[in-house]
Design brief:
The protein is α/β, with parallel strands linked by helices and 314 residues long. It has helices at 4-32, 57-63, 98-115, 139-151, 161-171, 185-188, 201-219, 259-282, 297-313, and strands at 38-45, 67-73, 78-84, 119-125, 129-136, 177-182, 221-228, 240-244, 251-255, 286-291. The chain has two domains: 4-31 and 75-313, Rossmann fold, CATH 3.40.50; 38-73, no CATH class. 45% of the residues lie in helices and 21% in strands. The strands form three sheets. A six-stranded mixed beta sheet has the order 5-4-3-6-7-10, with helices on both faces. Strands 1-2 form a two-stranded antiparallel ribbon.
């Protein structure tokens, strides 16, 4: 029996995200995510404006006037949600945590998918794959996906996207849309504190993850959705603080009252963020950066619009 407060939370997310899908994103989803290819449907007589390249020359020769092959798009798709449940996701400086925002974004994508009669699957991961739901259709399935993103209690605290992608490629043989929803902190700059000078492990790990993403993108249509909080990018002036890295357990004392320290922190984070975005571009992976303190509807709509223009206009 699911507690009433959990059902209420899931229902609230469904109402908010369904409104966005209905009013804004439903048609855009159909436009920017394509099927496996084109299926032959029939041969019919050529009509002015038809593509010459589709003329069926064998039938045209037999009938002494032009006929063309008609194709229809293979529309049914599979959307795989690959969601990071590492411990850093519980952080949020506003009412909404990163994990809650991740659940809302997953909900928008999932309801857009089932609106287009597509299947939705789920992989939850930390430093291992925590849960897998095979792709299915239907509202009940999507609500179960949202519930687990919000309330699954992970066994691990760290982040190993590589493991999740390896698992994805084993269980998803056909091409799919793969939305990786993560803060990507463990992939380029771990933890809640500024990186120390001389640390190179994060950079190397980022290259390993991008290599896995690049390999996965050859088989699937990968989209990276980064969820972050503004205080992961810039520190407020709160004096001396003792911080614990949610994923590693490392404890550090910092002085946020020191303007020079806050500036170094922001510069390090800005550099790490720029590097991550360059890595996505080098892998030709579309990426979207969302923040807990900002409305996400317009950002999602802009992302879909930009992707649609790129697909149709190059």
């Amino acid at each position: 029996m699911i507690p009433k407060e959990i059902l209420k939370k899931i229902r609230q997310i469904e109402l908010r995200t369904n409104r966005l899908v209905t009013e804004t994103l439903g048609g855009q989803y159909h436009s920017v995510f394509k099927g496996q290819g084109m299926n032959f449907e029939e041969v019919r007589e050529y009509q002015p404006g038809d593509e010459v390249r589709f003329i069926d020359w064998n039938v045209t020769a037999r009938m002494n006037h032009p006929f063309i092959k008609k194709f229809v798009e293979e529309r049914e798709l599979t959307l795989m949600l690959v969601v990071d449940l590492s411990a850093s996701g519980v952080f949020g400086s506003v009412d909404q945590s990163k994990r809650e925002l991740a659940a809302e974004i997953a909900s928008v994508l999932a309801f857009s998918a089932i609106r287009n009669s597509d299947k939705v699957g789920l992989i939850l991961y930390t430093d291992a794959v925590e849960r897998y739901y095979a792709p299915r259709k239907g509202r009940k399935h999507v609500l179960r996906v949202i519930r687990d993103i919000l309330f699954h209690e992970p066994k691990g605290a760290g982040t190993q996207l590589n493991h999740a992608l390896e698992f994805l490629n084993r269980v998803t043989p056909r091409r799919a849309i793969v939305a990786v929803i993560s803060d990507f902190l463990g992939e380029h700059a771990s933890g809640a504190t500024a990186p120390r000078r001389g640390e190179s492990g994060a950079a190397q790990m980022g290259e390993d993850v991008i290599s896995s993403l690049r390999q996965t993108h050859r088989r699937h249509d990968v989209v990276a959705v980064q969820i972050s909080d503004r205080y992961e990018l810039e520190l407020p002036n709160l004096g001396r603080l003792t911080l614990e890295d949610a994923e590693t357990g490392e404890i550090r004392e910092i002085d946020t009252g020191d303007p020079a320290f806050r500036q170094r922190f922001q510069s390090a984070r800005t550099e790490a963020q720029s590097k991550l975005e360059r890595l996505f571009r080098s892998a030709r992976i579309d990426s979207l950066h969302l923040r807990t303190h900002e409305p996400y509807g317009s950002a999602l709509a802009q992302f879909f619009e930009t992707r649609q223009k790129r697909i149709f206009h190059g």
